[in-house]
Specification:
alpha+beta; Immunoglobulin-like; 4 domains; four-stranded antiparallel β-sheet; 8 strands; transmembrane
Length: about 375
């Protein structure tokens, strides 16, 4: 029995030794299954630094935001233009990334200020395997070929076409013609999105629509239909939630500029009623002032007042005090006060100031 136990113990020891020996290879194979790799070949002139950068885009809104803080990987470009970017730290769900180069006189600026494009966007996950080749004979990224992903091929073709159209649009020197061409470009983007099989590639195109608020007012159904496509294909994706936020902001914008059945907020009704009441009150006040003025114009104050009251009214308008009026008319001060109070009642005023204003208006 002891001998059998020794044999079992020896077998377990040999198994553990083999397992520990194979463990590094097992871990390496597991990592290689879930690892991305981007190989590329570009034609860099002396104007460009021999380094390539890969930047993460956490939200589609950041497609056009330049920041070195988004860099997640970089690699050296050899003299023949070859580079490799690899790792296993990307999210499992597909997201947008920017592959870009930097000029020698720049530090970490991702977008150049001229018509030269120094970047391309890619749709990657942690197992993507791509080959990016700059096939153009001219400037960087004039013509790009992507192998290993049909979605990235379509995305690259769209971006290249869009970039060329934007260059032509910026060259137009009249506002009216530029606006017309911008609407035409937006229409072509919407057509591309509708025909695109992968909604994630379509989402990339949606964020290239110029003035989305105005475009939403004209084509709201397009945006709502695309939301349904995103939820069906990528229900839990980060970008689906981002698009929901975009759509909510567009609906809010439309809610402010026009009436929307079943979406209009209650406070809009309250504001409309409040404005209506305010306008009615203002019209009544104006009508009252006008009526009062007409009545005042019809009153013959010469017949309405006694001779002494007319003299007191004239004295008030002249700026005399009660004591001065009493001296002029040879009457007691208390009598002057009594006459003034009676005068106010006949004139329909409340005080000396109103009496003076009425006197001046009668001239």
């Amino acid at each position: 029995m002891y001998s059998g136990f020794a044999i079992f113990r020896g077998s377990r020891t040999r198994f553990m030794q083999k397992f520990l020996f194979l463990l590094p290879f097992l871990l390496l194979s597991i990592q290689s299954v879930h690892a991305y790799e981007l190989k590329g070949q570009v034609k860099l002139s002396e104007d460009w630094q021999p380094r390539v950068y890969l930047a993460s885009i956490q939200s589609p809104e950041n497609l056009f935001v330049a920041s070195p803080d988004f860099v997640i990987n970089e690699a050296f470009v050899d003299p023949d233009g070859n580079f490799t970017l690899s790792g296993n730290d990307l999210p499992e769900d597909p997201r947008f990334y920017r592959l870009y180069f930097v000029r020698n006189n720049s530090l970490a600026i991702e977008f150049t200020n001229d018509y030269q494009r120094n970047f391309i966007h890619l749709l990657l996950d942690n197992s993507t395997q791509l080959m990016v080749t700059d096939t153009g004979g001219g400037e960087l990224f004039d013509h790009v070929k992507i192998e290993g992903s049909e979605a990235n091929t379509i995305l690259s073709d769209f971006e290249q076409s869009y970039f060329q159209k934007r260059i032509k649009l910026n060259e137009i020197n009249t506002i009216a013609k530029r606006d017309f061409q911008s609407q035409s470009l937006n229409r072509s983007i919407r057509d591309f999105v509708v025909k695109c099989e992968d909604p994630m590639v379509g989402l990339f195109a949606v964020y290239h629509i110029d003035d989305r608020e105005t475009d939403f007012l004209r084509n709201a159904n397009f945006y709502f239909d695309f939301q349904e496509r995103m939820k069906a294909a990528y229900p839990k994706a980060l970008y689906t939630a981002a698009y929901d936020d975009l759509l909510n902001s567009l609906v809010g914008y439309r809610d402010l500029v026009c009436e929307i059945p079943k979406i209009t907020k209650p406070w809009r009704t309250w504001i409309i009623w409040g404005q209506s009441i305010l306008i009615i009150a203002l019209l009544l006040w104006i009508w009252k002032l006008k009526s009062r003025k007409e009545v005042e114009e019809k009153i013959d104050y010469g017949q309405l007042l006694t001779e002494k009251e007319r003299k007191i009214w004239e004295s008030l308008a002249a700026g005399k005090t009660n004591k001065e009026i009493a001296a002029d008319l040879f009457i007691e001060l208390s009598t002057v006060k009594t006459h003034i109070n009676n005068l106010y009642k006949r004139l329909g005023v409340a005080n000396r100031k109103e009496a003076i204003l009425l006197f001046n208006s009668q001239k």
